[in-house]
Description:
With 162 residues, the chain is α+β, with helices and mostly antiparallel strands. It has helices spanning 14-32, 38-47, 56-66, 75-87, 129-141, and strands at residues 91-94, 99-102, 112-117, 123-127, 151-155.
Amino acid sequence: MLTNSRIAYHHHDHKRCITAAMNRARVLCDDRQVRLTPIREAVFKTIWASHRPLGAYDIVDQMTLASSPVKRILPPTVYRSIEFLLEQGLIHRLSSLNAYIGCPFPGNDHNDVFLICRKCGSAAECSAEQLTAAVEHTANRANFKVESQVIEVVGLCPECQS
Ligand SMILES: [Zn+2]
Ligand SMILES: [Zn+2]
Ligand SMILES: [Zn+2]
């Protein structure tokens, strides 16, 4: 059962999503006394530019395009920022796409389900506690210790079904 339906599809004011995400990130980094440096912030903002997961190369390209005067952003600095954001739980990695997406509810431990639209590329994160419990139950029976579980479901979002 979906316990969270903060799923944002095409028609919404995405600027509000970005502002809210930036505010959450600043508060969380302050609390943990880690630094959201300008480059980390820029990477985070680039990932939050849409609800479509972005690969590392795309992040580098978009940051290069957005810089003025245009200067080539160095991939290693971007990769290090991605690592930082992953560690802080501010973004997630979708392994089926090898891409990154902003987390709408960072700061608490969660194992989520991503609904990935194969047509528009959007990925919606929702929590499905019963599914998490089922995975843990299965793992326990096999005496397997779960460290992370990210469930990626591919299909069509509401807007792309019509
Ligand atoms: Zn949005
Ligand atoms: Zn999340
Ligand atoms: Zn779609």
